């Protein structure tokens, strides 16, 4: 990503293009005004913010750790065993650890305090809590008995009848016989040594990849053979994705279907593992991915290794490291067939397997010293409020089941968080709010928590060495001209040698460098500029003594919080215009990114993190306006001033009403909560707020398609258009049942200031000065019957509360007079009239798809995580992303085939995949489609 600012602009353009396409508006003038509204700051997006990442202080290499760093590792050979395991895949032995990583390792092994790591993103927080975990396992593994035989073979790769023989009632917790169990060949006690809890499955998946590299690689396998007598360190993911749910044995009988499903799952995992091994044998293909063969293999579980893949194996022999989320953990506590996991862990902690010759005190002392249970909580700051209280009590239940208490000497709590402050410097300083939160969350009373924030000494020392930035700003013209000269692509990938040379010469001239300092390349020029640039970046992002995120550029008509100067102003001053400032910032970011080509400069360059903010559009609102035909015959703008937020009145003083549209013809409507009138001269009033104030705030206003006819009204500002039909139609109930056959659009007038609706063809008899206060159009009504003088359903009992508010038929195009199919899901009974709300899932899909395209396809690889604070919304977003991607692929394929005039291929596609491609009438006009091509 050479130009993060260009990437942001590309995302904005993609979102607006989606809005204009998916929510098509008939009036070009209104569409233009809507686009202007969407481009305003704080509506669809906010301008990016940027921060300089903290550079943490390095300590020493993993092979250089001393006895002081590893309490309890008195023997140098024990320290070598630990270093060799960690070097097998967790940490590169060539790199130094950060000081906060060695501190976490040292303090956790001492066991006097629980530890929380709070360093920033990308600072190795995961390694910080895995290191003490690995150290404890290495120390314990010195006493493990060698395995008696090899692990279980590929028993699932046989006929179903043979596989069924591997399951027998009463053989184990799951029913698997010994030779079918993954750890049936071991003699050491199986128990959970560490429970790692994540708030979401996406983070669990990332953790599994790390553990595969660290504990299930070729190097780690060699380590097991050399150091543990063939014993492995096992880890397992126990979530809803773990195969296979249910029980292999129920009511004393083997469940054939469940065994068959387990066999299918293992065969699929085996097939994938073998496929990736074959793939990594091709060095050219591996090189194209930008990753090593070991990294690629870590994305796929491997049956028979250190990763425990099935629930049944984990029930029989709990893994050393169990990874799950709090939802699954709560379910495990309630299920009988998961009880063995907690029972065996409790027995291990109590030392049931230790020699009977030991006295009770000796057994307890040995367990306290050698058998430690680690409770690891990632993203601890997410567990606040009511959800956090539920998790806190869940952890208490877990500890109780294991025979532990929050202050038990065999318990080590390790946690990571991005927003907890450091502990008080000494007991006399009092207890911080973070310390109080930690004690309350875990129920700890005697032990204290040590909060390790990370030593930012590296960046601080470099900043102090650089001193105060020299006065004056950077020249903005060279960078602006550089950005303008590049091809019009979001990232400016096509940076030629001439572009580089021109920027280098321009910088030298603007800064007054002597000829000898100019350099021949852009990298040379930027390297010379880097000390000053680093000074200015550190100074700009220092707010109240801390490195903070700040706005990237100025925003027209918007003020930023006090003390937060936009980075572009801090670097270039306020002389450039807004557009010039953005161009200069783009040029500087591209030039900075190009320095990464010189690996010798890595570690010396400032690292930046960008924050993009996009807003899910809830709808659109507008004041009633004046519509009519323009001189050229084009439809004029039928609405007044637009707004992205609901309010009682707009900026011009008129009532502010919701805007809806017909997704077939693009005509727009006013909608609002209906207030019934007792006055004869007007029928009802439309307002933007809910009249049911007693239900607020517990129950917010539902969307228009969920409102009833009794409490929500529609008005169509005709704007010179003629209604296609005023015939009555059937208006369905909210339940979807057949409704009243007397829905119709009737002439009416809407008062701009109050939202009052008057029925009739004739204009209201008002004073001439007030004539422009009324807007002509049609209002939607449902009568008791289709007779001329039938009562409005608003006057007939409560049945109006059961009818849908949105008219079944659009008055402009009559859409909705027949049912429609869309993406395979029936929309029978749905109105073509809808609001402008985008929906979380669809916006997430548009952002995810386009953001992924902006990331480089090679190098370190691409990774994109989408998450939500709500589990329900996260699940819905995941489904929408998959469904929306499939729908887009089908559309692209259809358009491609039609563009090639390959009608027969289209017909074949329709026959095999009919649901996503159905026409409104329920099927394609095959003759018309075949006519696309003479073939």
TrEMBL record:
<keyword id="KW-0614">Plasmid</keyword>
<dbReference type="GO" id="GO:0006289">
    <property type="term" value="P:nucleotide-excision repair"/>
</dbReference>
<keyword id="KW-0067">ATP-binding</keyword>
<keyword id="KW-0378">Hydrolase</keyword>
<dbReference type="GO" id="GO:0043138">
    <property type="term" value="F:3'-5' DNA helicase activity"/>
</dbReference>
<dbReference type="GO" id="GO:0005524">
    <property type="term" value="F:ATP binding"/>
</dbReference>
<keyword id="KW-0347">Helicase</keyword>
<dbReference type="InterPro" id="IPR011545">
    <property type="entry name" value="DEAD/DEAH_box_helicase_dom"/>
</dbReference>
<dbReference type="Pfam" id="PF00270">
    <property type="entry name" value="DEAD"/>
</dbReference>
<dbReference type="GO" id="GO:0003676">
    <property type="term" value="F:nucleic acid binding"/>
</dbReference>
<keyword id="KW-0547">Nucleotide-binding</keyword>
<dbReference type="InterPro" id="IPR014001">
    <property type="entry name" value="Helicase_ATP-bd"/>
</dbReference>
<dbReference type="InterPro" id="IPR027417">
    <property type="entry name" value="P-loop_NTPase"/>
</dbReference>
<feature type="domain" description="Helicase ATP-binding">
    <location>
        <begin position="106"/>
        <end position="438"/>
    </location>
</feature>
<protein>
    <submittedName>
        <fullName>DEAD/DEAH box helicase</fullName>
    </submittedName>
</protein>
<dbReference type="GO" id="GO:0036297">
    <property type="term" value="P:interstrand cross-link repair"/>
</dbReference>
